[in-house]
Write a structure and sequence with these properties.
- The longest helix has 35 residues, at 2-36.
- The protein is 82% helix and 0% strand.
- The protein is globular and about 70 Å long.
- It has helices spanning 2-36, 39-60, 63-69, 80-102, 106-114, 119-144, 148-172, 176-197, 210-220, 223-244, 247-260, 264-281, 286-309, 311-316, 329-345, 347-351, 357-380, 382-407, 415-433, 438-455, 457-477.
- By secondary structure, it is mainly alpha-helical.
């Protein structure tokens, strides 16, 4: 059991590298970006990305998730190349048809999405969707192969190109259209490069295997509304702000959310490796899921408190116009925290292939999000929207846990999950209530950190032993 845990942690760290490196690049460039670009410019760029992500969901129609699910258990014993080519072919066909169909309505679409009649933005929009879907499949391919090296190279290059050219545009013309143009073109170049690298995976499909196609679409299509609901759950705050507030609010909110994304140093490494690990081991390694769940709760709780503790210093790195977001920053951490938890507790939904239950999970969350955003944004402003997002995330986590546990008992004890959520909520309340009393706020957060350390003392000791063992193994190899 110890060896399995150590192996998981090694691969977890390996797949986390791209996130750590990428976030380091983003963290180093953030002080420049938030001084070069005004919040309203950042808000417009993020709205563009929000809608391009939504459209990307529609052209993928869940095939990206079917690609991952059946990568190791391909229907009708088809090859990986067949799976690869089938998914790309369907996605690109849908994109081509949609572009042609949208030509007569280009002005309407542009006005609805970007609040201005500009076909240039629409062209960038479709190119961005092409890049997003392409890089999504290529990324999944490296993940399912557990190819840490190529996965890391692709991820880091995407961040380097985006951040470096993004800053260059800011020095030249700090407005959103030039920034979007450079970001879109550089991602297009990367998509083409990695398509060439993986070109040997493609095969010619002269005749579609009906059994294969039926199995793929049976799994994929129910996931499309689910993925849209997931998009809505994270993007509703931005859409509400676009329609009822302004782009400056979007810029402040999304910048704080990006900093809260520091928790993704745990989330991305976990989520990247967790998918193939689950499908390979759910039949034989049932006891490991409980153990890994405890380790993740330990890391999430402690890391979240440390992040909240350091927020005063972190926000000093940002431009002065962005620092007011500090008051609602801790609530935004709950989103990724709840997502990670539900991935460990709700395994049964995907394992049993009853993916339609995700519609219940996320539709409930979306309804709560919309209702609370509309109710709280007037009296509390951006803080109210952040709270709405946090509550919606908790709702999603609870429902997914209840349903998932029904079909696959991944964990036996809920106290670790509950403790982690309570710790983060208390951290948010301390920050909001003691916002202007920095000394008292720090003392209370340190007490909260001490509680977390004591609660997870067993997990801390075991993780330390794994870390020492991994370091010793590395020294022996040298």
């Amino acid at each position: 059991m110890a060896e399995t845990g150590k192996s998981f942690i090694k691969k977890f760290v390996g797949f986390s590298m791209v996130t750590w490196i990428s976030f380091a690049i983003g963290f180093l460039t953030a002080p420049f970006a938030t001084r070069l670009f005004a919040p309203d410019v950042v808000g417009k760029i993020n709205i563009f990305n929000t809608y391009s992500n939504l459209f990307g969901i529609f052209i993928l129609i869940g095939l990206d998730q079917a690609f991952a699910r059946f990568y190791l258990e391909r229907p009708n014993n088809k090859s990986v190349g067949y799976l690869f080519s089938f998914c790309f072919g369907i996605t690109y066909s849908i994109l081509a048809v949609t572009i042609i169909a949208s030509i007569p309505f280009d002005s309407f679409i542009s006005l609805h999405l970007f609040e201005e009649n500009d076909n240039f933005l629409l062209y960038l929009f479709f190119i961005s969707v092409f890049c997003t879907s392409t890089l999504r499949y290529l990324n999944l391919s490296y993940r399912m192969e557990k190819n840490i090296k190529m996965y890391t190279i692709q991820g880091v290059l995407m961040t380097l190109v985006s951040k470096c050219f993004y800053l260059a545009v800011g020095f030249w013309e700090p407005s959103y259209k030039p920034a979007l143009f450079v970001l879109t073109v550089t991602h297009l170049i990367l998509a083409v490069i990695f398509l060439v690298i993986q070109r040997k995976r493609f095969v010619v499909i002269n005749k579609v295997d009906k059994v294969f196609a039926k199995e793929m679409f049976k799994y994929a299509l129910p996931l499309t509304p689910v993925t849209v609901l997931m998009w809505a759950n994270t993007s509703i705050p931005q859409v509400v702000m676009q329609k009822t507030m302004d782009y400056t609010s979007i810029g402040l909110f999304t910048s704080a959310a990006a900093l809260a994304g520091l928790i993704s140093l745990i989330q991305a490494g976990f989520n990247t490796f967790w998918l193939p690990y689950t499908y390979e081991n759910y039949k034989t390694q049932t006891g490991q899921f409980e153990k890994l769940h405890r380790y993740l709760m330990c890391m999430l709780a402690i890391f979240a408190i440390l992040l909240i503790l350091s927020q005063d210093v972190v926000f000093l790195l940002l431009g002065e116009k962005y620092r007011s977001a500090k008051i609602f920053f801790p609530y935004l951490i709950l989103g990724p925290v709840c997502y990670i938890i539900s991935e460990t507790t709700g395994l049964g939904i995907d394992i049993s292939k009853k993916t339609y239950y995700n519609i219940l999970v996320f539709s409930s969350s979306v309804l709560v999000n919309i209702l609370l955003c509309l109710l709280l944004q007037i009296p509390l402003g951006l803080t109210g929207i952040a709270i709405a997002t946090a509550v919606a995330s908790i709702v999603s986590m609870v429902i997914k846990t209840v349903v998932g546990q029904k079909y696959y008992r991944a964990i036996e004890h809920y106290r670790y999950m509950i403790a982690t959520i309570i710790i983060v909520i208390i951290g948010g309340l301390i920050t909001q209530l003691m916002y202007d009393v920095i000394g008292v706020k720090i003392v209370m957060l340190l007490i909260l950190l001490l509680f977390a350390l004591l609660f997870f003392k067993t997990e801390i000791v075991e993780l330390k032993e794994y870390a020492v063992s991994i370091i010793n193994d590395y020294k022996k190899k040298k």
